[in-house]
Amino acid sequence: MASLSSQDSDPPPVYTATDLVATSILVVDDAFILRDRLAMAFQQRGFRVETAEGYDQAIAVFSARPTDLAVLDLRMPGRSGLDLLQKLKQLRPEIRVLILSGFGSIATGIDAVRLGATNFISKPADADDILAKFLQGDQPGPLPRPDAEFPAPSLARSEWEHIHRVLADCGNNISEAARRLGIHRRSLQRKLRKRAPEDPGQPT
Fold it and tell me: For 123-146, what is each residue's pLDDT tens digit?
C-alpha cells in the first residue's frame, strides 16, 4: 500500500521547450482566461509565447513573429481553427500545430490531422497535456470507438457561438446580424451582453 501511495503522489511530468526542440509557441483562443493561463504556463516552460483571440489577429501576430508551434482553438467567432491551421501551414510549412477542442469531435480531430495538424486534444487540457501531444507527433495512439460518448455542447453554448459567428461574418454590424438571425436588434443586444455559457463537463 505504501508503494502504491508513493506512485499516486508522484507529480506529472513537466515538459519544456528543450523537450519539444522548439523555442516559441502561438496560442489562439477566444477565451482569454484559458489563453492567458496557457501562455503563462508555456512561458514558465521556456517558450517565447505569442497569443491571439481569433483568425485575423493570429495571422497578423504570426506574420510579424512566426513560431515553431501553435495551439489553436477549434471553434472561435469568425473563421475556425481549421481555417487558421491551413493558413499557418501555408505561411510556414514546418510549423507544428495542435487543435484544441471543447467538443470531443473525433471526426473533426481526424480532419485536423489530415489538414496538417500534428495532433489534437480535447478540453480541458493543461500545458503538459498539450506538450505531451506534440511529443506524440504523428502517433496519436488508438482513437476512441466511433460510438464513444462525448459531452455535447449545450444548446445555450451552441446558440452563443452561432450568434458570434454570424456577428463576425457581418463585420460586427448588429443590425445586419439581427436580420440574418431573424431576431429583433434589441433581443440580439441582450444576448450579446451575456457571457458564454459553459460546456457540459467543463470546470466552472
Answer: 778 899 999 999 887 554 444 444
